[in-house]
Amino acid sequence: MKISATIVAFNEERNIARAIRSLQRSGCADEVLVVDSGSTDKTRQIAAELGARVIEEPWRGYAAQKNFAAASAVNDWILSIDADEELTPGLASEIAALKTKKPTQFDGWAMPRLARYLGRWIRHSGWYPDRKVRLYHRDRAAWEGEYVHESVRVNGEAGELQNDLLHYTCDSLSEHLRTLDRYTSLAAQELAASRKPVPFHRLIADPPWTFLRSYVVQRGFLDGAHGFLIAAMAGFYTFTKYAKARETRR
């Protein structure tokens, strides 16, 4: 079992070194491939200096770019992480241990993802364990999601790893607002393309329910002020997505 680790990147000089170094722990990755979509900072230089193979490819969309990276890899087993993510030492060792065992009956592996938001690790609010399939055989799984919130669809069965993948999200509220603006535009495009109706009552009712679900049902209150902010921003995300979708259709 040989593994190619893939990262799609654009202007990620502040994150890329951390991500690559985590993939080099315990020998879990036999190749590190960075697919860069035209960075104007030092992303490509840093990646190459750390021993990664770097390919330049114009942006195709989240799922399509990650599928291109998988197709360009040397090995069939793909470990895909984002530039703002990092394998914990425990996860790197757990993945490395898979390579020494008999051929697995699974076609992919899901791992829990722990997010850091405004300087705090978030363990509630619907953000954890947030299991994601990130290790998969490229002949039996692929990325899906044309616009936003892409994910790996495994044709067979997926196993579960126990150690965390770390996700470094927003360092400031202004950064969160910029990210929200970008993602709600993509989500609105997806809604408009699906031609699903967005009635006005959903614009009114869904945002407060989204807040209550995150803060109360998913126990965001245990994350303190951070949990309140996450719930409020989730409600605002829902409102903005629907409002943009209605505007797009008009």
Characterization of this structure:
The protein has 250 residues and is of the alpha/beta class. The chain folds into 2 domains: 3-168, Spore Coat Polysaccharide Biosynthesis Protein SpsA, Chain A, CATH 3.90.550; 173-249, no CATH class. It has helices spanning 16-23, 43-49, 62-72, 89-98, 173-194, 200-217, 224-249, and strands spanning 3-9, 31-36, 53-56, 77-80, 85-87, 108-111, 113-117, 120-122, 132-137, 141-144, 151-154, 158-160, 165-168. It has a 7-stranded mixed beta sheet, with helices on both faces. The longest helix has 26 residues, at 224-249. It starts with a strand and ends with a helix. The mean pLDDT is 95.
Which SSEs are present, and which pair or pack?
Elements: E1 3-9, H1 16-23, E2 31-36, H2 43-49, E3 53-56, H3 62-72, E4 77-80, E5 85-87, H4 89-98, E6 108-111, E7 113-117, E8 120-122, E9 132-137, E10 141-144, E11 151-154, E12 158-160, E13 165-168, H5 173-194, H6 200-217, H7 224-249
Parallel strand pairs: 1-2, 1-4, 2-3, 6-12, 7-13
Antiparallel strand pairs: 4-9, 5-13, 6-9, 7-8, 10-11
Helix pairs in contact: 5-7, 6-7
